[in-house]
Structures are given as C-alpha cells and as structure tokens.
Amino acid sequence: MNTPVFSPRFLSSAILAIALPLASLAGSAEEVLYFEDRADIPRQYTWDLGLYFSDAESWDKSFAKLDAMLPAAEKYRGKVGDSPKTLAAALEAMFALDKVIGPLYVNGHQKMHLNREDKLGADQSGRIIAMNTKISAALSFINPEIAALPDKKVAKFRKAKELQPYLHYLDNIWRLKAHSRSAEVEEVIAGSSLPGAGHVNAYEGLNAGDIEWPTIKDENGEDAVVSPGQFGRLRGSTDRPTRKRAWEAHMETVGQYRNTYAATMGSKIQRDVWLARVYGYPSAVEAALSSTNVPPEVMETLIGSVHDNIDKVQDYNDMRRRVLGLEDYQPWDGQVSLLPDGGKTYTFEEAWALAMDFWRETFGDEFADIAQEALDNRWVDVYSNEGKRGGAYSWGTYRAPYYLLLNWGGKFDDVSTLVHEMGHSVHGVLAGRNQSYHDAGTDIFLAEVGSVASQSLFGEWMLNRTKDPEQRKQLIDHALKSIRGTFVTQIFFHEWEARVHAMAEAGDALTADSMGEVYADLNKLYAGDTVETHELSAGGWARISHFFRNFYVWKYATSFAAGEALAARFRSGDKSAAQDYINMLKMGGSQYPLDVLKAGGVDMTDPAVIRAVMDRFGMLQEQLETEFGL
Length: 630
Hints:
Blueprint: E1 34-35, H1 56-74, H2 84-114, H3 119-138, H4 142-147, H5 151-159, H6 167-175, H7 183-191, H8 193-196, H9 198-210, E2 215-217, E3 223-225, H10 228-235, H11 240-256, H12 258-278, H13 284-292, H14 296-308, H15 310-324, H16 348-363, H17 365-376, E4 380-381, E5 384-385, E6 393-396, E7 402-405, H18 412-434, H19 437-440, H20 444-464, H21 469-505, H22 512-527, H23 553-571, H24 577-587, H25 593-599, H26 607-628
Parallel strand pairs: 1-5, 4-7
Antiparallel strand pairs: 2-3, 6-7
Helix pairs in contact: 1-2, 1-3, 2-3, 3-7, 9-12, 10-11, 12-21, 14-26, 15-26, 16-17, 16-20, 17-18, 18-20, 18-24, 20-21, 20-23, 21-22, 21-23, 21-26, 23-26
C-alpha cells in the first residue's frame, strides 16, 4: 500500500514492546531495580537525550525549519515526472524534510517514554505529529505522480543516471501502481492520519495515564502495583499465590475498561479496512502482505507450521506443570521459572560484560564497538522508574544515536532482552552508516531478523559455557519460552488480528464480547486442555499493544524464523556466516526484505526455513526433559 509520504522512513527500525520481568537480586551487592524518583538513578544508566537536541530552544529551532523548507518541495506539484532531473530534485526535497522530522519525533516521544506526565514531551510530540500530518498532506502528490508515469517513460527513467540512487524506492511505487490513488485522494488520506491516530493515543493514555492499576502484596509482603510495567515481574514470581493475585488483579482491571479498549481497537481495525478498500485490496491482510512484497505462501506456511505442531506446544505446557509440581496449569503459571529460586540473577554490569564477550567473539569488533559506543554515550536507559514506559525497545533515526529503553530486572530474560535490543541498535547504526537516507530504514519484517539471530546465538553461547545443571535448565527453558513467545504466540496474535479484521470486512460488530470470543477460541485451540480456562482470559487481546501496529505480529514471527535460520549457519560452523550477517545489517532497506535475507544466506520462500523453528522447539523440549530426568 502507498502509505503517506512521511512515515518518516527512518524512525522505526525497531520497537519491541513486551512486558519484562522485574525482580530483586539476591546477594551482597543488591541492585536497586525500581526508582520512584528518576533523579535518583545513577546518571550513567540514563539516556542522554541532549545528543539530539541540547535543550528545548534547539528543538524549537529545528522545528521552525520545516515550514521554511516545505515550499522547496511543494513547487514540484504537477512536475514530478517532467524529467529524471526534476524527479530526483523532488525526492531530495522530500527526504530533506523527512531528515529533520525524524530526530524531532524521536526526541519528543522519548521524553514521554521516560515519564508519561512530561509536559514538554507531550507538547513536542503533539506538535511534531501535527506538523508531520501537514507535510504529509502537502507532499502527498509525489507518489501518485510517480505511479502515474506511462510505462515507456518508466523504462526510460530507470536508465537515467540521476535516478540510479533512488531505483529501489521508485520500484516499490511502480510495483504498486495498480493500488495507487490520485493526488487528491492521497491528500485526503494523509490529512486524516492525525485524527486517524486517535485510537493509539487513547490506548496509550488509558494504559499509562488514566487507569489506576491496583496494588497487591507480593511474595515479600510488600505493596506492588500491577501496572503493565510491573506485571511481567509479578507473573514470574516463584510464589504462586502472588502471581495468581497479580494476574487476576491486572485482568480484572483490564476488564473494567473492556468497552473503552474495544472502542479504540474497533476504530483502528475499521480504519485498516477502510484504507485497504480505498487502495483497492480485497482485504486488510492482503494489503499488509503487498506492502512488504512477501508472497502469501509465506504467511500460510507460518500458520500451517504452528498448527501442525500444536501438540508440541501443549506438551511443553504439560511438562512445565509436572516440573513445577502442579495439579493444574493456570494462565498465571506460564512465565515462572522452572527453578525453585527463580534461577541465576545478574546485575546490569555483569550482564553487560557477558554480552560484550559474546558480541566480540561471535560477530567481531565492528559490532561490539558500536555496542560499547552506545553504553559510553548513554544510549541505554536501564532501570524502571515511576511513569516510565514498560517493556523494552530500540529506537533512533538516521546517522544518530539508536537508544535502548530497558526496565532491568536482573533475570536471564533481561540479559537476553539487552542482547536482542542491542541487535536493533547496531543494525540501525550499520545501515545508516552504509546506506543513503532513503535506503537505510528497514521494514519490521527485516528489522527483527538480526536481533533474533543474536538472541538465539547468545542463549546457546551461554549454554556452552556452563556445566551447572540448574543454569542449563534455565537457559534451555528460556530458549523454549522465546520460541513460544516470539513465534508461536505471534502466530496466535496474527490469527486473532486476521479474524477480527475479517469480521469488520463482513460488517460484523466489533465489541468487547465479539473480539473476546475470538481470543478465547484461539486460546482453546493453542492450549487445548493443558491450561485451565478462565473467563478473564478472553480479554487478553486488550493488553497487546502490537495490535495497534497494522499486522505487525506476523512479520515478527517471520523475522524470528529467518533469525533462527541465520543462527543455524553459525551453529553449523559456517565461517562466512559472521561477515554475511554484518553485510546483511549494512544493507538496511536497500532491497526488498526477502532479497536482503538471501544475501544473508536465508531463503524465506523455502518452507523448510519456517518449519525448522518448530523442529528446534521439539528438540529443545526433549533436551530439557533429559536435564530434568523426565
């Protein structure tokens, strides 16, 4: 689908919003993991947001440039196809604006990610979103004029010297010519992006600001707020009554706002369906596939691979129940460690030392040096604080710092997440340093691959370094949970997303009950009888922020499969794997995702690549059963 001109193209590389477990460390040097006052966090563990703008005045000066720059791009209206030289100039004027928008957008939003109540961040975020909408509407004529070029002219332009740097960008527009719309229609669509984003703002405001999340007693008898940022820690408690209280309190609170969640989700889905129809696609799913240039067979293989191996997922649930010594397996038992003490813990400094050794040994100095640059220059925000966004992500823009947001909890999950997110940051930096602006940004389909490969290899690297039976159990179970969470569960999520979009396309009402029924049915399909059914589980869809990113989850699952295939090359002893991996990261979005993956030695059109993930899941499960003597 031709999205509005201003995405902006290089903002995203990767955002991973997941609930991370937070837990206190045992030992003599206890690490403080949560701060009520952000000012109490040691400076070296916090972001230096001044790397983008030194103060509010410098942000304002950059923002003011946008209105002054806009006429230089608008002057090409009706002239984009006059000549290769004119087209190149129009693209440069558009990208020049985009480059200014990127840092403004990231910087404003990240202030709010550190503190939802940050008034300056709220003001800057609102202003740049509105300006982005204005510019997107003003320049919405560019892509339609490119798409409207006659075939003979396109053939001529493809050979023009001035357009060689932009051929991939242009090819993606010409590829979707049948779904292009007039400049007038595109302007309306671009102008609707600001009111059209209301559902996202409402969802984030509800979760992070308006809901007063309940307080429970944790395993130590201390008060704990069951907020989205703390829910992961409490679900992972080795004290079963604690995790039961946490799960019920959190899900009951979600249920109290079920109709508001349904209204926000419903409006988002209806917009997806409307846009797909406007652009001439039979369904929203097909529009999403088309935008990535991935054949439908890849998605079909994803779903089929999981369905064919549902028994392995259910066997894993039952194995966990037996190891935990439980008569029944409840929704709040899925994240807890299989070790009575919760497994080995790590300070951030210990984790960083391990990660650096891994990166240097596995990927070489170029990768490791960028990671060290990130820490030394305070691109990493480590600890949780009051008002901070939950989960973890990597986010940055072209040839600028790629920030990592963490909520450090001291578990191996947190170490693994650090490795994963740094993979995104190194990917963004390498792509930015080796590609032109318009070819540096990567689709989510591709952005997750490098991180997944790094994370998978790190788990195995750790496993090969220890003979401790308890740590081996922890590491193998982590690998299994990773496949379950970032492959199997993402396919579950995709099926829910596809079904509720199909409901909207059929004219069915999207209510808390109707969407909850779909979620409950899928829960039953995936878990079978191995997990007890609870009425509150049907509202689980309302917790998934990824649903507000149009058909994101299937890309994540595909990326996971590709990342595992890359990791398999390393495991096989392929001496060219490391350099191919680095070269792939440097390619950014200069080619279509499947072509970039082929450069890394992975053919995603081969069904065996996807099926290998569930084969590995079964192998790891057998390995874990052996470790436990089952």
